[in-house]
Design brief:
heterodimer, A: 130 residues, mainly alpha, 5 helices, 55% helix, rod-shaped, B: 187 residues, Rna Polymerase Sigma Factor, Chain: A, Arc Repressor Mutant, subunit A, 2 domains, 11 helices
Amino acid sequence: MDKLAERLREDADKIDATISVELDERIQASLRGISPEPARRAAPPSRTFSMWWASGITGVAAAVAVFAVINMQQPEPESMTEPAVPPLALPFVDWNARTAVLTGPLQQEYEDLQADLKKAEQVLKDDIGL
Amino acid sequence: MSSELQLIEAAKKGSVAAFTDLVSAHRERLLRFLLTRCSSYADAEDAVQDTLMSAYRYIHSYNSRWRFSTWLYRIALRNAAKIGSSATVDLQELRGDENDPLSECIAASDRENLWLSARRLLTDEVYAAMWLRYVDDMSVNDISAVLERSASWTKVNLLRGRRALGTELNRGSCANKSDDHTGEAYG
């Protein structure tokens, strides 16, 4: 034992602490007045705890259902590639038109055009039998 | 040890005599320890009584993997703390006071009792750790259990306590030597 430990023990022994007769009687009287409390019974295993797996499965199923519903309601995502645009097919109309060739003055051209129109009207009337 | 276990079993069945035998070896040590924790001798006596009553009442909760004294000291510390917190006197203020029950119970000596120095230098918990180690020969694990601290905390603080008291001890012995040579008091 080192010097410090020895001194600590010696000095502790110098502290006068004796249980007096009065204190002893008090302790005895108080002990007789009580009795040891029975040991607490261990709590039975909880039903909730033993069925932990059931609640776990229910939770997982609910999560899967919610995930599925949310995904079904979502619009289909737009494709990142541009859709193929079909080529625009314009109907071909043959107007049977001829480019006017202005060979005379405008008044002359106008009279010729009216004459042509009358001829065309006559031809159309003949064709449909009017 | 086996007789201690037999006494514990008998006490569990309600034998006051068995319980009295069981604690007879611990009562004075408990009182001495509690004197260092309480503000008066009467408080220390009350704490001893409360400790023994609690121990008897809750003897079923004693776990035999601990020493019986460890369990008893743990209860004692709690009771001392309860009494200390309800007392009107601040325990810190009592240090060095002439009404300090510890100084009242120490026989007059030409040198200061090292436990009085410990009260002055150490915190309550370190003081308790030092007491349990050097007066009650408790292991570090038992002290940790009593103080509800980790083993590493206990080791570190025992070392700190030793250093502080070692310095005090050396200072005292130097003072005594100086006293012998010069006839003047140290400090």
